[in-house]
Amino acid sequence: MPTRESLNRPVQFFTGKGGVGKSTVIAAVATRTARAGQRPLIVELGAHTSSSQLFNGPTVGYEPVEVTENVYATRVSFEPALVDYVTSRLKLRPIAKLVAKNNSLRRFFLAAPGVDEIVTLHRVAELDANDAWGPILVDLESTGHALMFFDLPNVLNVFLEDGPLRQVLDTVTQLLHDTERCAVHIVTVPEPLAVRETIELYRDLHDREWIRLGHLFINRVPPAWFDEAGRRLIRDYLDIASADDPCRPSLLLAQHLVVRRDVAEKCIHGLRRDIDLPTVMLDSQDDSSAQIVRSISERLERVEDS
Predict the structure, then answer these.
(1) Is the Cβ–Cβ distance between 85 and 168 less than 8 Å?
(2) What is the pLDDT of residues 136-157, one digit of tens each?
(3) Phi, psi (5° rounding) for residue 19?
(4) What is the Cα–Cα distance from 31 to 182, expressed in whole angstroms?
(5) Model confidence over 167-193: pLDDT tens digits?
(6) 162 in helix, strand or coil?
(7) What does the alpha-carbon distance between residue 265 and residue 255 come to, in Å, rounded to a whole number?
(8) 15, 151, 273, 306: most buried, per Cβ within 10 A?
C-alpha cells in the first residue's frame, strides 16, 4: 500500500483525464516542496505549458526557468530533446544539431515508433541525474499517453539489441522501475465520466507491477452548502413555489448545488471503494490560479503533517 512518502520521491509522474486540474495540482506540489527548501522542476510535455499562467511567470521553454521563487519549469519538445539524445551518443553538440535539423533524418526519427517518448524519457532521466533539481514533477499529457509512456521501455526491450538506443533504453527503464525514486500519481474530479476513466486507469497501472503508484488527488470537490435541515427547506419551498414566484430561481440554484454535491459524494465513494491509494481531497475554488495553487499547497502541507 503506497504511503504519503510517495510525495517525496525524486521523480513524480502525474496523470489523469484532460481537464481535471492536473497542472494546478503539480504546481501546488512544487510550491509545497519549494517552501520546504527544495528546488522542484516541473516538466511539461507537448506544445502547451501551464506553469507560466499558473505562476504569472516567464515563458517556459526547453531550458529550465524559474517561474516563481525556487520553482522551475521546462517544456520538453522533440527537436531539442533529440539534440540532447544525439549529443549523448556523439559527444559533439554542433554535429548533433546538424543531425537533428537534417530533414531526412528528422523524418526518419519522427516516423520511428516510440522515438518521441524515448527522447522524452531520456531528457527526464538526464534532468534527474542533475543534482540541481529535485523533485522532478512530470505532467503527462493524457491517460492513454501515460500508459504508452510507461509501456514503451518494456515493448522496445524485445526488439533492441546492443547499441546506443539500447543504452538509453536501459537508463530510462532503470529509472521507471526504481520504486525508491519514482511514483505515479493520479488526478481526477468527482464526476461520473472522469471517475470511470480514473478507475480504469488505476487498474491498468496497478497491473504493471514495475510502477510505484502514489496518491489519488480528487480535485474540485464541490462544497456542501446546505445541511439536512436546509435541504428539507429547499424541497418544501419548491413544492409550494409557483412558476412566477420570485424566489423560484434561487431555489432551483440551491437545488442544483445540492444535487451536484450528492453526485460528487457518490463519485468519491466509488473512487475510495475501487482505488486503494492514499487520497487527497481538494475543494473546488473560485479564486485566481495563483490563489488556488497556494491553497492546495497548504492543504498538502497539512497532509504531510497528519
Answers:
(1) yes
(2) 999 987 777 788 778 877 766 6
(3) 85, 10
(4) 19
(5) 667 777 788 888 888 999 999 999 999
(6) coil
(7) 15
(8) 15
